[in-house]
Specification:
CATH topology of the largest domain: Protocatechuate 4,5-dioxygenase, Chain B
Number of domains: 2
Order of helices and strands: HHHHHHHHHHEHHHEEEEHEHEHEHHHHEE
Number of helices: 20
CATH superfamily of the largest domain: LigB-like
Radius of gyration: 25 Å
Strand order of the largest sheet: 6-3-7-2-8-1-10-9
Helix content: 25-40%
CATH class of the largest domain: Alpha Beta
Distance between the termini: 17 Å
């Protein structure tokens, strides 16, 4: 079922949703540039030249040059961003608001002094609302989750691939564990991978620490983590599906940070390399989903599992017939600092894999302390696997899973490597997903 966007029917109002944000991204970023005095001086000295320095559409440029705020809003502008532009021109907020209502500044001010515009006559017309909800055209299809991939994302694995060391005795057992995975990936290629990972102090430093960050942009380049960027492609995003997921997950009470620009580090690129190999372009679109597992408090396994269940609802409500895989990455047991550096717990890792398949709901209740004590401080990354597991159809009795591959190996650099592939088999007539 398509998402409810009845707010589009409120007269004289443009709600700034993800669709509007994507439409007006560069327009609003242009407005933000006017927050520095030097840029304002350049803009006022030659508006045309300054605007030409931004990838704006013609209707956006024309709206700005004509001082037409209504046109700018229709073109994706948000009033809080456009206010920066208005301020650069010396306009007050009342002048800007008045211009959008057809009033002079004095007329608008008098209206506000008189109590403001009445809501009477400015609500949704019930006839319009009924017409919008009457006999909706059914969608041609909807998105489906075809499977889940779980894997470690050890940076040294990427380095071994980049420097052609995969056949060395140390690395050969690791990459043998992914030979089946690459065949499976070729035979089960999705349209989109929803890839859950954690940034490693690359795109996000201590100035901004989002708990959950959803990539809603069109493309993300490969990060330079200090050794130079990996020689792998950047990723192509899926802004339309990402916007849909943002709308659905946030209205389902998951607080997300939406990210249009960032670089992606080994947490995302190593899993892609393991599954797809050395390619000039990744064979599908990728939606990055970052989870903070660096600075406490980090989300609980239960919260991640619940998010996965909500993610499945969100994906299956997308009214386009695209195939989606959900990947959970990170782990397994490892500790990278302090006197316990090098800690590995193979018994705990394999018990985790067992429960991930057979008892994911119970596994989601494992407290943070157990992860840290038993799997090492960085083993907490494994909570991210529960997002992918929660998105499988067997969780709510709407289908079944099939274990296609399982692998565990020690060591890969400082880390135990774990890997699991699940096929997702939803029933054609599945029951409604319950909370």
């Amino acid at each position: 079922m398509p998402l409810d966007k009845t707010y589009k029917l409120v007269p004289g109002t443009t709600v700034f949703d993800a669709e509007q944000s994507a439409k007006g991204y560069h327009l609003n970023q242009f407005c933000m540039s006017l927050m520095t005095a030097a840029n304002r001086e350049r803009f006022l000295a030659d508006e045309h030249a300054y605007l030409d320095g931004w990838p704006l559409r013609e209707e956006q440029k024309r709206a700005l040059l004509d001082r037409d705020l209504n046109a700018a809003v229709r073109a994706g502008g948000n009033i809080y961003f456009l206010a920066k532009w208005g301020a650069a021109l010396g306009l007050s907020f009342q002048q800007m608001a008045g211009s959008m209502t057809g009033m002079t500044e004095q007329e608008y001010r008098a209206m506000m002094v008189g109590g403001g515009r009445s809501v009477d006559g400015n609500r949704i017309d019930h006839a319009v609302l009924e017409a919008a909800h009457a006999d909706p055209t059914p969608p041609a299809g909807h998105a489906t989750i075809t499977g889940a991939v779980f894997t470690s994302h050890v940076p040294a694995i990427g380095a071994a691939m980049d420097h052609h060391r995969t056949d060395e005795p140390y690395w050969q057992p690791v990459f043998e564990g992914y030979e089946f995975s690459r065949r499976w990936a070729r035979e089960n290629l999705p349209d989109v991978v929803f890839l859950v990972y954690n940034d490693h102090a690359t795109a996000f430093d201590l100035s901004l620490i989002p708990t959950f960050a959803l990539g809603t942009g069109a493309a993300y380049p490969t990060a330079d983590e200090g050794y130079g960027p990996r020689p792998v492609p950047g990723i192509e995003g899926d802004p339309d599906l990402a916007a849909h997921l943002a709308h659905s997950l946030i209205t389902d009470d998951f607080d997300l940070t939406l990210v249009n620009e960032m670089t992606v580090d080994h947490g995302l690129t190593v899993p892609l390399s393991l599954m797809f190999g050395d390619v000039e372009k990744w064979p599908c679109k990728v939606i990055p989903f970052h989870v903070n597992v660096v600075q406490y408090p980090v989300p609980s396994g239960a919260r991640c599992f619940a998010l996965g269940r909500s993610l499945r609802r969100a994906i299956e409500s997308y009214d386009r017939p695209v195939k989606v895989q959900v990947w959970g990455t990170g782990g397994m047991s490892h500790q990278l600092h302090g006197p316990r550096a090098g800690l590995i717990n193979q018994e705990w890792d394999n018990a985790f894999l067992d429960r991930l398949v057979d008892d994911p709901a119970g596994l989601s209740q494992v407290p943070h302390l157990e992860y840290v004590e038993e799997a090492g401080s960085e083993g907490i990354e494994l909570v991210m696997w529960l997002i992918a597991r929660g998105a499988m159809s067997d969780i709510d009795g709407a289908g079944e899973i099939e274990v296609r591959h399982r692998f565990h190996h020690v060591p890969a650099s400082n880390t135990a490597v774990g890997h699991l592939i699940l096929d997702n088999h939803p029933r054609a007539e599945a029951p409604a997903v319950k909370e």
